[in-house]
Amino acid sequence: MKNKSSLWICLLIGIVVVSCDKKPSLQSYYVDKMDDSSFLIVNLPLQLDSLFSYDLSSKEQQALNSIDKLNLLFFRSKKDQEEKYQNELTKISTILSQDKYQPLMDFKSFDKAQGSFLFEGDTDKVEEGIIFLNSAKMGFGVLRIIGSDMDPGVIMSLAKKANPDQMKKQFGSSVGVLDGIFD
Amino acid sequence: MKNITFILIALFSTLVMSGQSIFERYANSDDVSLVSISPKMFKMLGQMSINFDDPEAKEYMEMVSSINNFKVLISGNIEVSDEMLKWVKQQISLEDLEELMTVKDQEADVSFYVKSGKSDDHVEKLLMFVTEHSGGKNNLEINGRNIEAVLLLLEGDIDLNKISKLTDQMNLPGGKQLKKAQQKKAL
Fold first, then answer.
1. What is the pLDDT of residue A82?
2. Which one is predicted more confidently, A34 or B139?
3. What pTM was computed for the model?
4. pLDDT of residue A149
């Protein structure tokens, strides 16, 4: 009897140890590559309030606040880095194939480009939206839209209400940061 | 006893092998173009449709949300096209698909197979397979690459009367033929 119970305890500990085994998350990948010069990482905190010139319902206000920031990672492939490019591509693909990142859409155009949309959370409570793009010529990029309990439906209806002039301005200044990457 | 185990294993392995769809097999091949939309995406789109004020957009979204699986595979070489044809034939016998219609025209052969749904103009599954005639004058092209075959798979509760709207929008080869197909089915 004693033997049996110790066996159970061993098993239990085993399960706990295995489930605690931390798989690399997208976040830790970003952090890892922070100091790597082949990577470009941009953090864009979003201030969306100014986009809306008129009143929003409390539901919409809540949706607005649910989006925290955009996080972009870009690996630019250079000719002498072919091996590194393949390595990193494998790493990121493994991370994205974890169950917690649920695929929404995959696409591929022969040998030119490949990409996918994924998300984490529930369909009406999205914790994180992920856009992954890869092109053998350019390199690969991952865009994360981070928030808490984002409701895609409400966000869509918000997008319609956005003031286009303000949006241009905001977007222009954000994109301005990215200028010069692609030369 | 040994024999039975062997047979079971053999049966099981064939099941597993046929379970891998052609879309998964070529997901990382450079010889194909592909678009695959997961059921989760359709669920999300369905939830969004509540928030549309425009009735036309709403109808459109409702149709989209009646679909729960969408896959397109476009092959750029003959070997892949042959595999696609094999897979289609296998699906027809496995899933007991019914041929809706076949159109042969100058550029391509287009076949539609369906699995009947709850009523005459609703289907559970729609397979469209387009093969190009080799040596044809007007080659089908996407992004400058010659295409040999197109395979489209739709699953869900599909209204044939509405679906051609969707294919029209996607500008896929075969859209015109599908329109004819649903007209025929409606007769």
1. 86
2. A34
3. 0.74
4. 86
The C-alpha of B68 sits at a distance from chain A's nearest C-alpha, in angstroms, of: 11
pLDDT digits (tens, 9 = 90+) for B37-72: 998 888 888 777 666 667 777 777 777 778 888 999
| Residue type present at position A92 | I
In chain B, % of residues over pLDDT 70:
68
Residue A135 distance to chain B (closest CA, Å) = 12
Give the integer Cα–Cα distance in Å for B74 and A110: 9
Query: Scanning every residue of chain B, which has its alpha carbon at the shortest distance from the alpha carbon of A102?
Result: B40
Amino acid A141 reads G
A102 shares contact with chain B (CB less than 8 Å): yes
**CA–CA distance, A49 with A138 (Å, rounded to integer):** 34
CA distance B38 to A143: 20
What's the pLDDT at B179?
66
The shortest CB-CB distance from A153 to any of B36, B48, B145 is to B48
Mutate: best of A105, A108, A118, A145, partner B, most B CBs <10 A:
A108
B53 vs A179: which has the higher pLDDT: B53
Whether A150 and A171 have beta carbons less than 8 Å apart is answered as no
Q: Are strands A113-122 and A125-135 parallel, antiparallel or unpaired?
A: antiparallel
A-chain residue closest to B42, CA distance = A104
Contact B47 A124 (CB under 8 A): yes
Q: What whole-number distance in Å separates Cα of residue B56 and Cα of residue B58?
A: 5
Least confident of A46-60, A61-75, A161-175, B24-38: A161-175
A166: its two tokens: 């303000």
- Contact check, Cβ <8 Å, B47/A103: no
Measured distance CA(A64)–CA(A56) in Å, rounded: 10
Taking the mean position of all CA atoms in its chain, how far away is CA B75?
13
Mean pLDDT of chain B: 77
CB contact under 8 A, B34 and A108: yes
- ipTM of model: 0.70
- Sign for the CA dihedral angle at A72, A167, A150, B35 comes to negative
Query: What is the least distance, in Å, from the CA of A112 to any CA of chain B?
Result: 8
